[in-house]
User: Fold this.
Amino acid sequence: MLIKVNNLEKQFSNGEVVTKVLHGVSFNIEKGEFVSIMGPSGSGKSTLMHILGFLDKLSSGEYLFEGEDVSKLTPDELAEKRGKKVGFIFQSFNLLSTLTVLENVTLPLIYSNVKEKDREKIGKDLLERVGLSHRLDYNPNKLSGGEKQRVAIARALVNNPEVIFADEPTGNLDSKSGFQVMKILQDLNEKGNTIILVTHERITAEYAKRIINIKDGLIISDEKVVNRQIAKDNNELLK
Amino acid sequence: MSIFESIKISIQMLLKNKMQSFLTMLGIIIGVMAVVIVMSVGASSQEFILNEVKTIGTDLIGVLPGNSKGAPSSAMGIVNTSLKYEDGEKILNQNNSNIDTLAMYVQGNTKIIAGENDLNISFSGSTENYMIIQKVEIAEGRFYTKEEEKNYSRVVVLGSKVAKDLFGDQSPIGEKVKIKDLSFKVIGVFKEKGSSLTQDQDNSIVVPIKTAQKLLLGIDYINLMRIKVVDESLIDETKEDIRSVLRESHNIDNEDEEDFTINATATALESIEAITNAMTLFLVAVSAISLIVGGFGIMNIMLATVEERISEIGLRKALGAKESQIISQFLIETIVITFLSGLIGIILGIFVSFIIYEVIILLGTNWFFIIPFWSVIFAAFVSIGIGLIFGIAPARKASKLDPIEALRYE
Assistant:
């Protein structure tokens, strides 16, 4: 079992006002799964992803990652998990404009103490896999949205993580770039990567194999996708 | 993450925003520059003053009339007449093997006339050993003898400038000059010596001491006695010998009644060194204040930088950066900024000190160009230290940022 969540709750307190975002959710995710966490904005899906990705702490309940109780980890251990166990793909790409494309991809390796020579090799290989080996020394600002997101995917993969979290990865992209990104994610899943996709659109969610539907901080359904979207079959890509 | 990695990142940040970086660094640059200049000029002027004192000689003992305790008598308009020609004779008659030679002095100002020309100058009346003590040499003619000194001879030795002003290119030897309506014979001219802090040898004249006492000043006391010892190490011992001779001569039993003062240039040298050191320290402290002000400027800018880079910090944390790694990144950035500023400040400081040196030399003073090595080390360490101290608050602020909050911040 990769991820085991038991009656997880999360509340934010802003002075005297306490806002409850997650009202006790429970589910398991196995290695190799492709799961969408779907829900309207304000449903708590992003907060859930942050907790699963070690970016935020739960208020009560239980979260086991590879059988380890995450709430017992120190800040440094959490940082290490963020660096090595998970990879993030954000809606707004979050690339650093002070660094080149290659440096952006290899940035997580700096924090896990990989030598500069090895970093370069890993980064170049990954950029080739996402079809950007001709953009190594570019400034990220000069890339198109689709290219930026592919750089972010390469960065997410750089530490060979257990889970890839994609938070609305197609939200800022045109539809063709969106299909390209979804195709890469589906390819990665074919090769055995665990992927957790956060989205508010059912059509995007259906690229996954399983959808956890959240509303007002509660799971309202958790089911297999019947008519799965397959990105590589999409006509837009062939154009 | 290695230190080089952090230094690389910080230099990238600096280059990205050149104008802001420069303005940030300006405070430290100016502060370090001021410290280096002050230390350089301090060391140079100390060297200058010590050098001046050393030209008088560090193997000399001076004896002045009056007690050094309490206010100097001359300051109150009282002329001290307690030191006599005979006192010097008595010291010499001891045949003290420590004493090389001794000269006595009286001093005054007068008008000197030669034909059409006249000058207002200072004159010394002194004994035959004047030249040894004063380290002067004769360019032309001779100095007066012991006989001439004792016989109230009206002979005079001229400073090189006096000779030139009165006689032009002509030789003055054997010529007559008038001093206080008395006729004197010029018997010698001193070699040019150049002016120093204490006296202008070239612009003065020397006559036998008894002649000066009786004919020019009308006094029976002397103003000063200088004794040259065989070796500098004998100064303290010899001072005591002189003291006992003078006490006996003046019938004095205890220190409070002493009517003379004995001092040595060697000890004067030490106190001058102490005074100039204190002065330099004071000036360094004053200029160091600007370094502290510069430090607060850097802290302010770094705090603003943290604010500007919230999303970057959040991203770095999301990608696995530990708090300690964020702290070291920001701390190293601040240190790189302050160290570079320090480096520029040191270079500018040395440059300005050199210009000061050139200007003073141009104005005709024997100045020195000294950059104390430790002032450079001090300035470099202080600038790194400022980076450390004033970098902590911004670095801690950055490291404590919540990664999600930071990521959301756009």
Chain A is about 35% helix and 30% strand. The CA atoms of residues 8 and 31 of chain A lie 20 Å apart. Helices of chain A lie at 45-52, 75-84, 101-111, 116-129, 145-157, 175-190, 202-205, 235-238.
